[in-house]
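FORM 12-B: Structure-to-Sequence Request
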């Protein structure tokens, strides 16, 4: 290398840093995980209600999911006012959701009490939405996986009621079923998706107690 080349190297401007579409957003303070199973087979089933709530939040905030290298999930970052929110859809089956949640919580330094899991709840009437922190998993394998991998049950749950099956239908058929177009059950679940998305935004802005007071009164 000539002296001239060396001098050119000293004064050459470094390449500009490539900006991320997330650079202008606040750092993630909350992680919102919609529980569900990937694939067309499970789309729009009652069991995938968590996915649908994340989709509603993506629509509201005009965001799109992207893959994360080394993590079995797709994520999007958005802001609810000045509060950063990480939206997550696991790419694993529901009973392995914790494999996506735990590494993301570590990477983004999000404590367990700022992880929000949105899931279907048999023990609530169809369309009813309730919020709580901690407690047992009521046999829900997705919650069991999250609790195991986070090492705690003390995270936020948004429970979206799908009701118990009627007319002797098996629980598995009810959970993995799709309410008919134009049915009351379909209307109730669509309302619940919007209510659960509202709950996420209220939690991000004002905390869990405020969301409980507002959502539980609906």
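FORM 12-B RESPONSE
SEQUENCE OUT:
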């Amino acid at each position: 290398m000539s002296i001239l080349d060396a001098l050119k190297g000293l004064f050459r401007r470094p390449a500009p840093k490539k900006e991320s579409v997330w650079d202008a957003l606040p750092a993630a303070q909350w992680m919102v995980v919609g529980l569900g199973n990937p694939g067309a087979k499970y789309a729009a089933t009652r069991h995938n209600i968590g996915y649908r709530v994340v989709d509603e939040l993506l629509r509201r905030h005009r965001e799109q999911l992207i893959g994360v290298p080394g993590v079995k999930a797709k994520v999007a970052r958005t802001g609810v006012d000045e509060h950063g929110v990480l939206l997550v859809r696991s790419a694993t089956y529901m009973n392995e959701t914790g494999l996506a949640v735990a590494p993301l919580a570590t990477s983004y330094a999000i404590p367990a009490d700022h992880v929000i899991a949105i899931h279907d709840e048999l023990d609530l009437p169809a369309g009813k939405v309730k919020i709580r922190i901690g407690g047992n998993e009521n046999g829900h394998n997705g919650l069991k996986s999250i609790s195991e991998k986070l090492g705690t049950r003390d995270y936020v749950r948004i429970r979206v009621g799908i009701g118990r099956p009627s007319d002797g239908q098996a629980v598995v058929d009810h959970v993995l079923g799709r309410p008919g177009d134009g049915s009351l059950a379909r209307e109730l679940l669509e309302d619940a998706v919007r209510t659960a998305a509202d709950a996420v935004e209220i939690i991000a802005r004002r905390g869990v107690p405020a969301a409980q007071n507002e959502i539980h009164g609906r």
